[in-house]
Amino acid sequence: MRRLSWFNAISLTLGFAFLYIPMLILITYSFNAGKLVTVWSGFSTKWYGELFRNEAFLDAAWVTLKVAVMSSTIATVLGTMAAYVMVRAGRFPGRTLFSGMIYAPLVMPEVITGLSLLLLFISIGLDRGVLTIVLAHTTFSMCFVSVVVSSRLVTFDQSLEEAALDLGCTGFEAFRLVTLPIIMPAVVSGWLLAFTLSLDDLVIASFTSGPSSTTLPIKIFSAVRLGVSPEINALSTIMIGLVTIGVIGASLTSKRSIAKRQKDEQGAIQ
Amino acid sequence: MKRLALISVPYLWLLALFLVPFLIVLKISLSDTALSIPPYTPTLDLSEGWAGVKEWWAGLDMENFWWLTSDDLYWKAYLSSLKIAIISTILTLLVGYPIAYGMSRAPDEWRPTLMMLIILPFWTSFLIRVYSWKAILSNEGLLNQLLMNLGIIQEPLIILNTNVAVYIGIVYTYLPFMVLPIYSALERLDESLLEAAEDLGCSRFTAFWLVTFPLSKQGIIAGSFLVFIPAMGEFVIPALLGGSKTLMIGKVLWEEFFSNRDWPVASAVAVILLLLLIIPIVLFQRNEEKQREAEK
User: Is B3 near chain A, with CB under 8 Å?
Assistant: First the structure.
């Protein structure tokens, strides 16, 4: 069994302290009674109450959730198709352009993506609203989905699909009955990634949203641009809490399913 | 037939919503600002047939690009974005490498937990993570309170609204992007190589420098691109943590568009930013494909 040297122990401790202390401070001060966010004046949950009475925040949260569910679902379908094309379709005319269009949005500055999509929507006369944000978010997040899914597709044994085809499945049946269940964990994590990217996006949403479709990040940004507010601290705490529960839950589920699969495989061998 | 459908759906989507928008940006960057709706001329009028296309083509020029070169605000913004992106990439590497190294040396049963601790901030809202530094770095903020109570400084340090705050913000938010690729390179490292180096008389440090470091080069390259490229066009971090003196091209583009409503100049700024980023983006893509080939 390996032991951690003092150097590694110190770098891990400092590194994780750097990552987590700012968030812990934020969470602590969301329970501060005073309006000043840097002076502690007693425990209170009043900012949470204020938050839930703030109609504008609730409306924005609802818009954000709608956009995230729609865009991540469409992005998962398109991204999985794109991954399948990249890994399985072989050569076809325009493949280089296709792979370029898959990778480029991953590293494209958001201001450029936002600006270019806005100019597109204006030039085809599409009114800005929930629909335009969904289109924009789908486009950049499908690329993330396709990268996640294609890394799973690359490692999986193609002979399983061939066997299904030999046994009389149509191409689509082979995909639905064999391929999809195997790549499902990657598809699910692709969906989750697309969902959080959409929840979190400020820049692209600012370009593509209309007056009636303000998302939560836009609201938060305009509230914190000038200073710190205890209400935003409360909102942040709720969001950090939900993400933490989600990530820990997902990792426990995947651990359990890996353990179950290993057990099944061993059972099959015996 | 089915194959064609499978290829064409994502292909057409990306053409329509990724490539075409760029061509529009390119076109508008060559147009002139005008007080009309949309606020630029010329607009393509297809109802006049070929003559309309010709007139539109004749109206395009490089004027906005000349304008960008004549006003040194833009030059300074590009150079200062480049400087900020390079410095913060180096800082992220210096902070991230020891973490990735420590993770790869940690006992096996700790690793899933450490991994989750690195990934968790990545799932947490970017905006909130940047915002969390505002309360720490401000003049009456917690860092200054702490340092003054300890008697290290007498006067509060001015960090918020300076470039230093921008560096801290970039290192903080992009750290997982640096740690993960380096960790995955280090994790694959065969430890018997290090033992061999030590048996052959290397000190631990020389063994690290001659064996471990070169073998983690792929991870360092991938991580550095993943930090450098988005940092170059960053908007949120300079807007929230930087000051009025922090010049970054993402912020200039935003203001050109939203405050000055100058679409042609905003488009020209975007085109040049993209040209500057094409080299690192292509290099990054090559690196990724090389790795993908190696994994096959």
Answer: yes
Instruction: Give me the domains of chain B, ranges plus CATH numbers.
Output: 67-295 (1.10.3720.10)
Assess contact for B67 and B29: CB atoms under 8 A: no
Instruction: Give the mean pLDDT of A202-227.
Output: 89
Among B17, B175, B288, whose Cβ lies nearest the Cβ of A135? B17
Phi-psi group of A2: left, alpha or beta (phi > 0 → left; psi -120 to 50 → alpha; rest → beta) = beta
């969001």: which residue's tokens? A239
For chain A, say whether B253 makes contact (Cβ under 8 Å). yes
What's the pLDDT at A237? 92
* B141 pLDDT tier (thresholds 50, 70, 90): confident
- The verdict on residue A42 lying in a domain is yes
Measured at the CA of A138, the angle between CA A136 and CA A144, to 5 degrees, comes to 120
d(CA B11, CA A85) in angstroms, rounded, equals 10
pLDDT confidence bin for A78, thresholds 50/70/90:
very high
**Domain count of the fold of chain A:** 2
Q: Tell if the CB–CB gap between A12 and B114 is shorter than 8 Å.
A: yes
CB contact (8 A) between residue B274 and residue A220: no
> Is any Cβ of chain A less than 8 angstroms from the Cβ of B108?
yes
Contact at CB, A111 and B253, closer than 8 angstroms: yes
Helices and strands (DSSP H and E) totals, chain B: 16, 2
Question: Domain of A151: which CATH number?
Answer: 1.10.3720.10
Q: Rounded mean pLDDT of A248-266? A: 78
Interchain contact, A247 vs B120, CB within 8 Å = yes
Q: Do residues A119 and A190 share a domain? A: yes
Average pLDDT for chain B: 85
Give the angle B178-B182-B184 at the CA atoms, nearest 5°: 125
Q: Does residue A129 share a domain with residue A174?
A: yes
Q: Give the residue numbers spanning the domain of A234.
A: 22-53+216-245
